[in-house]
From TrEMBL:
InterPro entries per record: Acyl_CoA_acyltransferase (IPR016181), FeeM_cat (IPR054597)
Name the record gives this protein: N-acyl amino acid synthase FeeM catalytic core domain-containing protein
Domain N-acyl amino acid synthase FeeM catalytic core span(s) in chain numbering: 36-193
Organism expressing this protein natively: Rhizobium deserti
Length: 250
């Protein structure tokens, strides 16, 4: 499935939840796990011909920022996808999007807004053929982060052909039109979703993005805040969206 191909049907929402039953999330913290993430990023970016210009490593200092949360998505216990979710505030402005669209991000933050900036999205080219719903599963932590931190916007700095996907799924609006990004050597555009305006609609159309509060805490609270930090985190979308799922199946 291409990211601009967004089926809009009850059966599709049910298929998303069925796929999620075989998924686990892992907060990436160990050296070994980071090496696995780097290899997956390289594999995915090489396949799509979107390797950053002059990149010597698929890990960067932003991965280890205090407001960055790097996740591995495991399908049948095999690493299938990854995403980095950055919590951006007026007092902590580090994020990937600000490196490409500094003026736009600064305007949001100067207005007192808080943001979720998803970056380093990558899915295994071999597994996505088996599981074409993988992009939805991989993007789920960005929605969870927006709810957990109560942010105003979710940003999407993406290639222009993918903009239709984010407009349809997340009701995103263009903030900066397609612009050549020097660090990549190709066009990127910046979109943003107004979390409070679109949350109920997105959750109703795509129950996969729902979650229980305790799952969000496991995903985003520090080890010091958790009594027993989990090795992996099981999705709670089916439990959180039970009434919606019953309607979908009726």
């Amino acid at each position: 499935m291409q990211q601009n191909d967004v089926p809009n049907s009850k059966s599709f929402s049910v298929k998303l939840l069925d796929a999620l039953d075989h998924v686990e999330y892992r907060r990436i913290e160990s050296h070994e796990d980071y090496e696995d993430i780097a290899r997956l990023r390289y594999k995915a970016y090489k396949m799509q011909n979107v390797l950053p210009v002059g990149a010597s490593s698929m890990l960067d200092e932003i991965d280890f920022d205090s407001h960055a949360y790097v996740f591995g998505i495991y399908f049948y216990e095999e690493l299938a996808g990854t995403i980095r979710v950055h919590h951006v505030t007026p007092d902590h402005r580090v994020c990937q999007s600000s490196g490409v669209f500094p003026q736009a991000v600064t305007q949001f933050l100067d207005a007192g807004m808080t943001l979720i900036d998803p970056a380093r999205f990558a899915v295994d080219p071999a597994i996505v053929g088996e599981l074409p719903l993988l992009p939805y599963v991989t993007l789920r932590p960005s929605i969870m982060g927006a709810i957990h931190f109560g942010t105003d916007r979710v940003l999407q700095h993406i290639r222009p052909p993918h903009a239709a996907f984010y407009r349809r799924v997340f009701a995103a609006k263009v903030v900066v039109p397609p612009t050549i990004a020097k660090s990549y050597g190709f066009e990127l555009t910046l979109l943003a979703s107004n979390v409070r305006d679109v949350r109920s609609t997105v959750m109703r159309r795509f129950p996969i993005f729902q979650s229980e509060a305790y799952e969000r805490r496991l995903m985003f609270e520090s080890a010091a805040q958790l009594a027993v930090p989990p090795l992996t985190i099981l999705p709670t979308a089916r439990l959180a969206s039970k009434p919606a799922v019953q309607l979908l199946l009726s």
